[in-house]
Prior knowledge:
The chain is an alpha/beta fold and 263 residues long. The protein folds into 2 domains: 4-147 and 200-262, Vaccinia Virus protein VP39 (Rossmann fold), CATH 3.40.50; 154-198, no CATH class. Helix content is 38%, strand content 19%. The protein contains 12 helices and 8 strands. Strands 3-2-1-4-5-8-6-7 form an 8-stranded mixed β-sheet, sandwiched between helices. Helix 2 (52-56) links the parallel strand 1 and strand 2 (60-65). The protein is globular. The termini are far apart. The model has no long low-confidence stretch (mean pLDDT 95).
Amino acid sequence: MALKQHKDEKVRFDQQVDNSRSYVLPFIEATHKLGGGVNVMEIGCGEGGVLLPFAEKGCYCVGVDLNPLRIDIANDLLKDEVQQKKMEFLYKNVYDEDFLLRFKDFFDVIILKDAIEHIPDQEKFIPYLKNFLKPGGQIFFGFPPWYMPFGGHQQICENKFLSMMPYYHILPKGIYKGILKMFGENKDNITELMEIKDTQISIERFERIVAASNLKVIKKQHFLINPIYKYKFGLQPRKQWAPLTYLYGLRNFLTTCVYYTVG
């Protein structure tokens, strides 16, 4: 049963803005000053709502996405900020040479909010991001660990039973796909869910990639209840019980979201 925000871009935008203002921006601001002269990029920006609170702080914001429709929506919803040259939204691949030439060593902060779990070859991608950072710059990652109850993003399913059933996304790929087909899930959703399964990322794997990229964890927060569940399910965000965050492996199954800044 797809939620309203899966089909309504204005609802998604408003939720992005509120979540960013309440959780993402304060988390980043705890370790990096924000304001005039600070350049911020969000990769996988969608409708652009995450960036609006940063622009309101005086930051120059660039949103990048591989979905041209969502870039068009961002440019429409934030047309005043774009016209005032506070923000720009680009339908680009960050691997493109012209993008790298323009923005090399340009950003103070890079944001990936619910994005890294969709990106293939993370071992290549995460160290590549360093090309865009100024000295002292930081990268924010917020994502659901793969093994958490809905780490496969199965909540996007049209079938109500499939959308509410936890953990079955960790089954072998053939069985998982077979279940989706058996319950009549639409082809586009199955394709997306299979892509997410291919790019799955756990807390441990993420931290290994960060270390191998010669990046250091500056700040982290694990959540028992993801802040975005306030909008999806009416649940109040809750930080993870601190001792559980040290239980390697097990923590993935009971942690619905993690925030990290690295640099």
